[in-house]
Amino acid sequence: MLRRVYQKLQSVLSAHVKRMQPTSSRLAGKILKLERKETWETEWNDGNPAWHRKYVSPMLIKHYDEFTSGRRNRRILVPLCGKSLDMIWLADQGHTVVGVEMIRKAIETFFEENKLLYDVNTAQTSAGGTINLFKAKNKDLTLIECSIFDLSREVYQNKFDCIWDRGACTVITMMDEARLKQYVDVLLSSLQSDGRYFVMTFRHESGKNEGEWISHLPEDKLLELCGDRCKVELVEQDDIKNDPALLEAYATAPQHSIFYYFVTFK
Q1: Between 113 and 39, residue with greater pLDDT
Q2: pLDDT on residue 19
Q3: How confident is the model at residue 17 (pLDDT cuts 50, 70, 90)?
Q4: Please, what is the angle between helix 219-226 and helix 177-189, to 10°?
Q5: Which GO terms fall under molecular function for this chain's record (predicted)?
């Protein structure tokens, strides 16, 4: 799905640049569709999303010890989790894993495909609403059914030691800047003072493809969003061609590089 959304956005942006006409309101309308639950429900109902990995992230495994500070029993948040197998793997390492996903189909598919029994409970939000929590019976793993923007302390209760953001930030970046800032603020407000935010972003090799979505979240922008409260450390850079799932999702953007960062409080 991300590939199709990406291609649509490319077409809109390319036409916008070439015409140089005041079409910002129409462009905003296209981008804001990404915020609508119906957009993602359609894609999940259509089948297996292109961005889903059928394997655990190699970079998560490679940098696992540093990510968790070599400790067990970490509370780990996975935003926009879908049915990521990373959650199963992290739970099997002895951690408490909490995923956030607003599409019920994705949540139910995750439990069904991994043959996990679960209970459904509810939590009150600060706005007075209720949110469903899907708790696995035989693993320390919970999926919260809500928009990441509705995630609050009333729902998750205790702050997290670690946040694993594999591509979620990329989706938010395709919304607008205010939403991106809100997203980063939500995550950082949920992180312990000595916690670690492990985020994957993309950067296009600028100028190779006309009309390309040039930059998803460059390091200077990440620094700006985090402000003086955090430090950002580049962990590793990789080529998108080395990741089959990402190359499939971003088939029209083979010139992208993948960047992995640790964000920590100063």
Answers
A1: 113
A2: 35
A3: very low
A4: 60
A5: thiopurine S-methyltransferase activity
